[in-house]
Amino acid sequence: MTQSTMNASNAFAEEKAAHPAVADDVAAEPVYKLVIDESVVEKIASKSTQKIDGIIDMKGSLLSTIQEGLGGSDKTKGVSADVVDERNAKVDLDVILEYGKSAPQIFDKIKDVVASDLKDMTGLTVVEMTVNVVDVMTQDEFDQKNGNGGQQDGPSN
User: Does the reported pTM lie above 0.70?
Assistant: First the structure.
């Protein structure tokens, strides 16, 4: 009986050597991964950009316009993002500036705020950012365009 036990034990040892994924042979360190979806990067970038003074709105797609027309909202409107790898992201923004504001100053603020918010919330570093100024308008023009002409209760923003 001792002989057969040794053979079974040797067979198990040979099996473990041939297949390193056997349960007893699994590495002591588990593998952990944090995966950030591009839509999350887009949403953070959109919210970060919209809180900057001088940004009237983000320029969305036709789908965004339809969603807003039906009472919904597009949380990633005007943003396209690419998660390059586990540490880096690229961001493209389409913005509508407030007339009379400095585009270069707003651009600098966008770079700082979006990069900081993305780093803080996701750990991703912005390695490339393109800000496309697609329109310039006053707050009144924007309100009239969106059917808010003079019917607001408080300050616009």
Answer: no
